[in-house]
Amino acid sequence: MKLETLLQAIRPIEVIGNKDVEITGIQFDSRKVTTGNLFVAQKGTAVDGHQFINSCISSGAAAVVCENTDGIDNTNNATIIRVKNSDEALGRIAAAWFDNPSRKLKLVGVTGTNGKTTIATLLYKLVRALGHKAGLLSTVVNYVDEQAVPSTHTTPDALQLNGLLADMVAAGCEYAFMEVSSHSIAQERIAGLDFDGALFTNLTRDHIDYHKTFDNYRDTKKRLFDTLKKDAFAITNKDDKNGMVMLQNCKAHLHTYSTRSMADYRGMILEEGFDGMLLTINQKEVFVPLVGRFNLQNLLCIYGAAVCLGFEPQEVLRILSTLTAVNGRFEAIHSPKGWTAIIDYAHTPDAVDNVIKTINEIRKGRLITVVGCGGNRDKGKRPMMAKIAKQGSEQLILTSDNPRDEEPKDILKDMTDGLTEEELRSTLVIEDRATAIQTACTLAQKDDVILIAGKGHEDYQIIKGIKHHFDDHEEVKKYC
Questions:
Q1: Mean pLDDT for the stretch of residues 376-395
Q2: Tens digits of per-residue pLDDT, 195-204?
């Protein structure tokens, strides 16, 4: 593709050199640059790509996008493009490189702290069940119609993201549903995408290590809605105190859902058990094999999105009644011994609280909770999660999650700091997660529930930079 064509997607401050050069590929990793490539120098959180510009030019880069030109030794006469924001430029250039695939799909983004994976995944399943080809971009796995593509991030980098969307177009997909993380918005990975709809789930404490303040976190999420076009739709959770904030300055068609007040999409739980719920959605009864008020909110959002996409409401309800839980999201494993284990990805205070409240509304026996916190992440939520888990459970077992580069003992100390001396006396601290799960299963009696929180679908633990295989499901099944 000609550089001049790619430049039409951005607003460069300055272009030094020939715009008529042929570009053979786009790279933001300097180690991958080959002859004829366009290199985009980004100011990353750990490494600044600007320091590798000269080596990229030596490797044959035909053009370089950067925010400043200081120190560039342009011996090979590469075209230098100066922009205000390299991250945004990469997103828009990536979209142009793949011929703007998001414009050829009905693309719906889901953002919020909790519920993104469930909503995006079940929308993907619902639309396919209604006879349409669709794609999915999620934390657990990506799908190009029926083909699974491994997922490494909640939202991929701009090149991978547009490449996957282009694959969906090539496969004949009409719809695409994607989780939109706050990191991807802040880092402009979604720049250049054409969203037909945006959905907001909720907002609770998460990623404060990255965003520094809750207000920054909230305002980053809001940017998805601020940039929607007029003929798009926006759906927000009216039950969340930040729900209506998302719709301020939004030009799209606005919709709300709620379990508590007047809204476009309303719902209520009539009956509930570990096998599912009998609900009303807009005064129509439906039984779904999902559990919990948080899942009722998820289903209202899914129902609203499907209706906004033009699907017949009664058909949507029919399909909703067949949709099962996403891997690692309130997933029940029933033991022949009479107890039940619930595996859930809950890794924030609010998510742990929601899951525990849901279990406590249904259970007959005791609740045994196994929970840990990830390393190299927001330390402030650790004592809060321990406190919430202790207050809602008869037995609490604190253990490791993904310690990453931190010492597990330090993480557990942060968690136990949230407990009183009396609470600590009845709390088990077991660093090894496998032993913690084994202990919970050994303690469990008939009608008891074991909540294993934090990892959900993940089948690994990261310890000192090394990824080890570990699956909560496998560990539970050893002791059923």
A1: 95
A2: 999 999 999 8
- Least Cα distance to 27 among 84, 102, 78 occurs for 78
Q: What percent of the chain has pLDDT over 70?
A: 98
Residue 189 CB: number of other CB atoms within 10 A?
A: 26
Other C-beta atoms lying within 10 Å of the C-beta of residue 459: 14
Q: Classify 475 as helix, strand or coil.
A: helix
Looking at the chain, which residues constitute the CATH 3.40.1190.10 domain(s)?
Answer: 100-320
Model confidence pLDDT, tens digit, residues 19-37: 999 999 999 999 999 999 9
Average pLDDT (124-151) is 95
Amino acid occupying residue 208: I
What is the SS3 string spanning 176-192?
A: EEEECCHHHHHCCCCCC
Nearest to 298 by CA among 224, 176, 199: 199
Token look-up 């009303």 returns 280
Determine contact, residues 201/110, Cβ cutoff 8 Å: yes
User: Which tokens hold the place of 146?
Assistant: 């029926």
Instruction: Report d(CA 297, CA 362) in Å as an integer.
Output: 18
SS3 state at 233? strand
| DSSP state at residue 207 | -
Match domain 3-96 to its CATH number in 3.20.20.370, 3.40.1390.10, 3.30.413.10, 3.30.420.40.
3.40.1390.10
CA–CA separation, 405 and 407 (whole Å): 7
Whole-number Å distance between alpha carbons of 394 and 370: 11
| Cβ–Cβ < 8 Å for 179, 110 | yes
Rounded Cα distance between 219 and 147, Å, is: 35
Fold (CATH) for 100-320: UDP-N-acetylmuramoyl-L-alanine:D-glutamate ligase (3.40.1190)
Q: Mean pLDDT throughout 131-151? A: 95
- Residue 435 predicted with pLDDT over 60: yes
331-477: CATH topology is Protein-Tyrosine Phosphatase; Chain A (3.90.190)
Please report the beta strands in 301-425, taking only residues with DSSP state E, as ranges in sequence order.
331-334, 340-344, 367-371, 395-398
Residue 408 has pLDDT above 80, yes or no: yes
pLDDT at residue 359 tops 60: yes
Looking at the whole model, is its pTM more than 0.85?
A: yes
